[in-house]
UniProtKB/TrEMBL annotation:
GO MF annotation, one: nickel cation binding
One Gene Ontology cellular component: cytoplasm
Alphabetized InterPro entries for the sequence: UreF (IPR002639), UreF_sf (IPR038277)
Superkingdom of origin: Bacteria
Keywords: Chaperone, Cytoplasm, Nickel insertion
Subunit field text: UreD, UreF and UreG form a complex that acts as a GTP-hydrolysis-dependent molecular chaperone, activating the urease apoprotein by helping to assemble the nickel containing metallocenter of UreC. The UreE protein probably delivers the nickel.
HAMAP family documented for this protein: UreF
Gene3D superfamilies linked: Urease accessory protein UreF (1.10.4190.10)
Organism: Pseudovibrio denitrificans
The protein, known as: Urease accessory protein UreF
Family: Belongs to the UreF family.
Chain's gene name: ureF
Intracellular or extracellular location(s): Cytoplasm
Task of the protein: Required for maturation of urease via the functional incorporation of the urease nickel metallocenter.
């Protein structure tokens, strides 16, 4: 695969994973709304600890492994394995909210990414539901965007969105929010390298409390976010 120029790849990732790209990411809290309502996150320290767990041993790690394998499958035009990865990504969702979060964003991303060839990919996958990390990784591979850069940008977008949620609900100030993102940089860089060489055997999540909070959100009486 001939990778695109670094500047082009950077511009594409900035577009696809920007808050302005119409996936509706701002509407999802990934269960954070439940955690904050229960006063489990009340300060910057709590917020960093919660995100650290999601990154290293939670849903984001699984997303990264699936995205990495999907990027490689798309590069090799292994559509059968790509479809299997999408089915696995959907099966790993611990509840209705998480399933809705990944499929609605995956569908929205695919529709918005038509200028980069997403229609052809959607036809090849032939699935009613497309998981968000699969959609992003496949578009990146199809456009020859490097794997490490794709994984790093995906992580940053995920974390930035959740920090935005916490800035609104905890509330955290902008200074604390930016400090959290700065503190996470070495973790995101290290995980990008790990995920790039990961296999299906590396999938696994131990953040059960976070999963339970996400499921609790489905029955929350007052909701601002969709998940």
């Amino acid at each position: 695969m001939n990778e695109v120029a670094p500047t082009t790849a950077l511009l594409q990732l900035m577009t696809w994973l920007s808050p302005s790209f119409p996936t509706g990411a701002f509407a999802y809290s990934h269960g954070l709304e439940s955690a904050i309502q229960r006063e489990l996150i009340t300060c910057r320290s709590d917020a960093e600890e919660y995100l650290h767990d999601l990154i290293h041993t939670g849903s984001l790690w699984n997303d990264l492994v699936l995205a990495s394998l999907s990027w490689k499958a798309a590069t090799q035009e292994d559509i059968a394995f790509l479809c299997q990865l999408n089915e696995l990504a959907l099966a790993l969702c611990p509840g209705e909210d998480r399933f809705m979060e990944t499929t609605l964003q995956g569908d929205a991303f695919s529709k918005a990414a038509k200028p980069w060839g997403s229609e052809k990919i959607a036809l090849q996958l032939d699935s009613a539901d497309l998981a968000y990390p699969i959609a992003v990784a496949t578009i990146a591979a199809t456009n020859c965007v490097p794997l490490i850069a794709t994984l790093a940008a995906y992580q940053h977008s995920f974390c930035a969105n959740l920090v935005s949620v916490m800035m609104r609900l905890v509330p955290l100030g902008q200074t604390d929010g930016m400090q959290i993102l700065a503190d996470l940089e070495p973790h995101l860089a290290e995980l990008s390298m790990r995920a790039a060489t990961a296999s299906l055997d590396d999938l696994g999540s131990t953040t059960l409390h976070g999963d339970f909070l996400a499921m609790a959100h489905e029955h929350q009486h007052t909701r601002i976010f969709r998940s």
